Amino acid sequence: MEIRLNCSILTGKLVRWGLKRLGKTATALPGNIALRVEPDLLKILRGRCQKVVLTTGTNGKTTTNNLIYHILKGDTGNVLSNLRGANMPQGIASTFIENYRDEYDWGIFEVDEGSFRKIAGDLRPDYIVVTNFFRDQLDRYGEIESTVSMVEDAIKPLNTTLILNADDPLVSQFEQLKKNNIFYGVKRNQFSTETKTVVESQFCPLCSGYIDYEYFNYGQLGSYHCKTCGFKNPDYDYYLTNINQQHGYSFDVAGREILKDVHFKYRGIYNLYNVCAAFAFCSEAGIDSNRILGRIESFDYKLGRM
Question: Which residue in 30, 198, 291, 293 has the fewest CB atoms around it within 10 Å?
Answer without folding.
Answer: 198
